[in-house]
Amino acid sequence: MSRDTQLKERWEQLVTILSDQFSQGEDLDLDAIIYLIGVQELGKVHNEFKKDEKLNLMHIAICRLLEPYGFYEFEFFDEDGWPHYKVKEELPPLKAGEQSVLMKEAIVNYFLEREVIS
To answer: Could you tell me the pTM of the whole model?
Structure first.
């Protein structure tokens, strides 16, 4: 099976699992899944978040997802328990489609590590 086909199948499996758990019948999009990862990484799953905190959660998720690729490195947790990352290497310029594929691959790998999908 080609890498692209396998990624597509795993992505669809993951979207189904997460949508069934966190959505009322609609498939979650890429941003919603990134947000969920941010909440998971923060560890405060039952909190309500303000708009700026939601953006910060998405930033946390992106840093965590791209850490294995060498773009970010975890630094510390602040006094409120929010993780902070530093940039190790700037992301190369990517077209929108390439960004989407990179993020989907990183998300699939994240959930493979947690054995949510196989």
So the answer is: 0.92
pLDDT in tens, 16-42: 999 999 988 799 999 999 999 999 999
Cα 73 from Cα 64, distance rounded (Å): 8
Domain span at residue 93?
Answer: 3-114
**Total number of domains constituting the chain:** 1
Question: What secondary structure does DSSP assign to the chain, as a single string?
Answer: --HHHHHHHHHHHHHHHHHHHHSSSSPP-HHHHHHHHHHHHHT-TT----HHHHHHHHHHHHHHHHGGGTSEEEEEE-TTS-EEEEESSPPPP--HHHHHHHHHHHHHHHHHHTTS--
Please report, to the nearest 10 degrees, the dihedral formed by the alpha carbons of residues 72, 83, 96, 10 taken in order.
100
Place of tokens 């409120």: 80
Q: How many residues does the chain have?
A: 118
